[in-house]
Amino acid sequence: MRALITGGAGFIGSHLVEHLLALGHEVVVLDDFSTGSMANLTRTSDAVTMVRGSILDEADVTEATDGCDTVFHLAAAVGVHTIVNRPLESLRKNLLGTETVLDVARRQGTRLLLASSSEVYGKNTKDRLDEDDDRVLGSPLKSRWSYAAVKGLDELMAYCYWREHGLRAVIVRPFNVVGPRQSARYGMVVPTLVGQALAGRPLTVHGDGTQRRCFCAVGDIVPALVALVTDPRAYGRVFNLGGTEEVSMRELADRVLRVTGSHSPVVHVPYERAYEPGFEDMARRMPDTARARQLIGYRPRTGLDEMIAAVAADQRGRARETVGTRTEESR
Q1: How far is CA 283 from the centre of its chain?
Q2: Residue 319 — pLDDT band, cuts 50, 70, 90?
Q3: Which of 147, 161, 275, 298 is labelled catalytic?
Q4: Strand partners, 136
Q5: Which of 4, 84, 153, 321 maximizes the CB count within 10 A of its CB?
């Protein structure tokens, strides 16, 4: 295939670039580098067609999509901190940008995978969430829920483009994807805790630490994205993608300490101090991935300790590169 990846210089996008190239496909990346980085594509830059531009710009999206038969739409506002601190910007990028990408894909006749989010389930704390479960959202005036609301609208638009225009669209809801190149800058919990542990700083756990999540390695996610977008049985449907091991945030901090060998303390930070007054979180969020397993044989194989070790190795490597660069510059 010749595939366009919007947000291809980001965390998941750059891993998808590598996976597609390894399969022998051609890759085009569209990225405005607001959160992505060329450093994520260092090993693949010569093999990738780069288009520096925005998903909000129809001309940029049209240029990038030209000649492609597949679009992986991953570009979006990233992280809880971004959503809370810049809600209007996030709404525009996620909603208007997705509409632009969908419309160009329709005109050019490509198939499309839309990366949504487990956030769409909101405060639903069912034991294992399946794709047909209700969405339980807080007040629309709380910026915490703006991302969940707009991702739900993204999904609805993709579904309508499939139903009304025949766009071959697949929707996926990733649950807490983790791996190398993931930045702590936007509030992602695993790289944040790992970075604190490696630096000998206190590990910050929000709230009482009893909130429970599961995590999935990026290396387990990207093959599933390709398998789904190339399977006609997936068109017009939504799929959860996530891990199977549930852990509390306090347990996660303890696992990070053990894997990294750090002796840092763990401190609890109130949500009001970490985000904003009235911030709401979910007590639990676990995926039911039976639908993806039945269709494409999806089975995550990477354990949590292995994910933590991979993030730690990546951060140590980046730190060594930074020191080496500074040493060279000082000579």
Answers
A1: 20
A2: confident
A3: 147
A4: 122
A5: 4
- pLDDT over 80 at 80, yes or no: no
User: Which pLDDT does position 299 carry in this prediction?
Assistant: 96
Q: What is the 3-state secondary structure (H, E, C) of the chain?
A: CEEEEECCCCHHHHHHHHHHHHCCCEEEEEECCCCCCHHHHCCCHHHEEEEECCCCCHHHHHHHHCCCCEEEECCCCCCHHHHHHCHHHHHHHHHHHHHHHHHHHHHHCCEEEEECCHHHHECCCCCCECCCCCCECCCCCCHHHHHHHHHHHHHHHHHHHHHHHCCEEEEEEECCEECCCCCCCCCCHHHHHHHHHHHCCCEEEECCCCCEEECEEHHHHHHHHHHHHCCHHHCCCEEEECCCCEEEHHHHHHHHHHHHCCCCCEEEECHHHHCCCCCCCCCEECECCHHHHHHHCCCCCCCHHHHHHHHHHHHHHHHHHHHHHHHHHHC
Tell me the C-alpha to C-alpha distance, in Å, between residue 87 and each of 76, 93, 95, 274, 280. 12, 10, 12, 16, 15
Q: Which residues pair with 172 in a beta bridge?
A: 115, 239
pLDDT at residue 180 above 90? yes
Token pair of 321 as six digits = 């590169």
Contact between residue 286 and residue 229 where contact means Cβ atoms under 8 Å apart: no
Q: Which two tokens stand for residue 22?
A: 């390894």
Average pLDDT over residues 186-191: 86
Contact criterion met (CB below 8 Å) for 241 and 298: yes
What is the pTM (predicted TM-score) of this model?
A: 0.92
